Structure formats: C-alpha cells, structure tokens
C-alpha cells in the first residue's frame, strides 16, 4: 500500500488558540477534526506544500514554520506520513475555502474533538508542551 506524505500545520494565533478543520464526510476519516494541511507533491518540500495547502484550504499566508513532529501511521486502507509543523508567523483569520467547518480552539479543549487516530500523538504533545 502506498504511503501518502502529508504536510500538517498546527496553526497557533496570538491568543494561543489552534485552528481546526472538519473533514468532509466523503473523505478518508471524514467527519473528524484535523489540523489543516495536505499532500506533499513530488516537486515540493514539506514547507512549500504547507504554504500552498494552508493558502488553498484556509486562506492563510504562512511566512515561517517550525518542524514539530513526524508520524508514520498505518490505517487499514491507507498509510500516512505526517510532517507536522508549528505555524505562528502568518497573516489571515482562517476561513474554510473548501466549505469545510473550521474553528479556533484552546489547547485544553482539543480532547473534546474527534480526530483521526494518527493525530492523537500531536494532541498529546501539544497538551504536554502548551498547558
């Protein structure tokens, strides 16, 4: 089974809230919340993919990001490699350009949302480091 390489942004605003997006129900892991991002194309670095995806999905202009975590996770139907970056240096308010629901949430509230299993280590690390 092919592994999908995904650039993921943990976007943190000045109020220390994190941007979440809800996956459309027809997608893999649909109906669950996620940290925005998308596939890294063959001709891109992770940073280039992250900048492109966050502009396309949530209309943010990313200036810099910091590598945070890398997760390889095997679902029964798909293998993913998540390259997670912290994004604090950006412009924009965040909006669902693909008609997905988005919201800014406190780190302490992350456990109230249903995420894909591969995202659980991200949440644990954020809660340990930010609370």
Structure report:
There is one protein chain. The chain is α+β, with helices and mostly antiparallel strands and 131 residues long. It has one domain (3-130): Alpha-Beta Complex (Nucleoside Triphosphate Pyrophosphohydrolase). The protein is 18% helix and 40% strand. The chain has two helices and seven strands; from the N terminus they run E-E-E-E-H-E-E-E-H. The strands form two sheets. It has a four-stranded mixed sheet with strand order 4-1-6-5, covered by helices on one side. The protein has a three-stranded antiparallel sheet with strand order 3-2-7, with no helix packed on it. Strand 5 and strand 6 form a beta hairpin. It is globular. It starts with a strand and ends with a helix. The model has no long low-confidence stretch (mean pLDDT 94).
Give the key terms.
131 residues, single chain, 8-oxo-dGTP diphosphatase, 40% strand, alpha+beta, Nucleoside Triphosphate Pyrophosphohydrolase, DNA repair, NUDIX_hydrolase_dom, metal-binding, DNA damage, 4-stranded mixed sheet
**Proportion of helical residues:** 10-25%
Order of helices and strands: EEEEHEEEH
CATH superfamily: Nucleoside Triphosphate Pyrophosphohydrolase
Q: Mean of the pLDDT scores?
A: 94
Annotation, overall tally of beta strands: 7
Task: Determine the CATH topology.
Answer: Nucleoside Triphosphate Pyrophosphohydrolase
Side by side, the strands of the main sheet go 4-1-6-5
- Poorly predicted spans: none
Tell me what the CATH architecture is.
Alpha-Beta Complex
The domain count comes to: 1
Report the radius of gyration as a whole number of Å: 14 Å
What's the quaternary structure here?
Answer: single chain
What is the terminal separation in angstroms?
38 Å
Share of β-strand residues: 35-45%
CATH class: Alpha Beta
Biggest beta sheet attributes: 4 strands, mixed
Number of helices: 2
Structural class: alpha+beta
**Overall form:** globular
Keywords: DNA damage, DNA repair, DNA replication, Hydrolase, Magnesium, Metal-binding, Mutator protein
Family: Belongs to the Nudix hydrolase family.
Catalytic activity: 8-oxo-GTP + H2O = 8-oxo-GMP + diphosphate + H(+); 8-oxo-dGTP + H2O = 8-oxo-dGMP + diphosphate + H(+)
Cofactor: Mg(2+)
